[in-house]
């Protein structure tokens, strides 16, 4: 049976490979960062099992490892990699392969969707092939392996070249590769710690709660602000909905829940365009395109984000209370 733990072990193996290659090339800070991170990924199950049995030491060591990552992150700087082929050779290969280059990329969502939809029905010798918990993530990991194999077949190249290129991209992205993982955890922390209730209390104190316009403006700007902080509108949404959306806009002023929710998320997406915390959208493209400034993508999006936010708020005001 395929469990999500297998995916974590594969990630750990890749991170350890990246660290060892950096160590071999004498990039010490990069090597230390990826080796520590790989160890944390690989040892997660052991830490949980020891914590459940009453031994807190592995969990404490894991916490120290996270602190070490935070200390190492500022020392990660882009460094040159030995190119396996020239730019002219890569362009010639891309022209020769044409649309076949899209096959590996399209296989990732396709295989993930197939596992999510039909994985529970795939049974061999009376046992399910995929474990029910986190089946979609397990399917995503399997899809990445299928895509790697497909890319090697399409390009007529050894699979190790794909691993080496992945390592090059990981070094180019650096610590920002961890932001989606950390921000997802931050959103859960905010939700569980009652930030929504705190926002509701602040809104009741400082907002003219009798004004639907003021409450709606606070909700829209709050979605932008919390998305900027957390880099993810999905993490900001439950916080703002619990603090302002439900108690003030829906219950008190009769706002339409579906319109408020959908357009409120669009306000949050405007915040995504403005923040480096949304690493996948803003920092990673800057690193891959080797822009002079890591914030070049954000600067190009600022006016678009503000214009979309203004238009969205006007439409919310016209539609949400109908």
UniProtKB/TrEMBL annotation:
The record lists the membrane-crossing segments as 6-24, 31-49, 101-124, 136-157, 169-191, 211-237, 258-278, 298-321
Q: Which InterPro entries match?
A: DUF979 (IPR009323)
Keyword entries, A-Z: Membrane, Transmembrane, Transmembrane helix
One short Pfam name that applies is DUF979
Answer whether the UniProt record assigns the keyword Transmembrane helix to this protein. yes
* Name used for this protein in its record: 5-oxoproline transporter, DUF979 family subunit
């Amino acid at each position: 049976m395929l469990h999500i733990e297998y995916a974590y072990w594969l990630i750990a193996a890749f991170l350890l490979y990246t660290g060892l290659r950096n160590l071999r090339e004498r990039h010490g800070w990069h090597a230390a960062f990826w080796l520590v991170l790989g160890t944390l990924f690989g040892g997660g199950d052991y830490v949980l099992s020891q914590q459940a049995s009453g031994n807190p030491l592995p969990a404490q060591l894991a916490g120290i490892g996270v602190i070490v990552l935070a200390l190492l992150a500022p020392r990660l700087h882009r460094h040159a990699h030995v190119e396996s082929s020239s730019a002219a050779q890569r362009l010639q290969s891309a022209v020769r392969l044409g649309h076949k280059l899209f096959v590996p990329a399209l296989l990732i969502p396709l295989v993930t969707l197939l596992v999510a939809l039909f994985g529970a029905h795939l049974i061999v010798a009376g046992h399910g092939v995929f474990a029910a918990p986190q089946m979609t993530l397990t399917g995503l990991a399997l899809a990445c392996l299928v895509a790697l194999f497909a890319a090697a077949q399409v390009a007529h190249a050894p699979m190790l070249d794909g691993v080496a290129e992945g390592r090059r991209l990981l070094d180019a992205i650096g610590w920002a590769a961890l932001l989606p993982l950390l921000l997802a955890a931050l959103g859960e922390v905010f939700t569980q710690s009652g930030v929504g209730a705190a926002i509701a209390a602040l809104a009741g104190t400082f907002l003219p709660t009798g004004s639907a316009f003021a409450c709606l403006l606070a909700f829209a700007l709050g979605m932008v602000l919390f998305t900027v902080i957390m880099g993810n509108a999905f993490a900001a949404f439950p916080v703002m909905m619990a603090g302002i959306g439900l108690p003030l806009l829906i219950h008190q002023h009769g706002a339409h829940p579906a319109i408020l929710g959908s357009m409120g998320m669009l306000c949050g997406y405007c915040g995504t365009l403005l923040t480096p915390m949304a690493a996948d959208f803003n920092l990673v493209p800057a690193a891959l395109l080797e822009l002079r400034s890591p914030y070049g993508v954000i600067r190009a999006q600022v006016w678009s984000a503000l214009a979309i936010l203004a238009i969205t708020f006007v439409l919310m005001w016209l539609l949400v209370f109908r």
